[in-house]
Amino acid sequence: MKKLILGLMALTMIFSLVAPAASQAKKPLKIAFVYIGPPGDMGWTYEHDRGRLAVEKQFGSQIETKYIENVPEGPDAERVIRQYA
After folding, report:
1. Single pTM value for the model
2. Which of 32, 52, 78, 80 has the highest local Cβ count within 10 Å?
């Protein structure tokens, strides 16, 4: 009988610790894209943007994407990347 009571107490303690964590909603994963040109240029930036849209379609509300275009390579790009980090 003591083992049964101890077992039930242990299960109660475990569920009391796990239940609050399970009830918290997961925040969407944030993904940022930094483009060197506009997506409408029909080049690499266009294809990267199509990939971004495909990821949004595949994962829906599990992710949140942002993008910024026309960022030249160099110190300005580093500043933008740090801003989105």
Report:
1. 0.62
2. 52
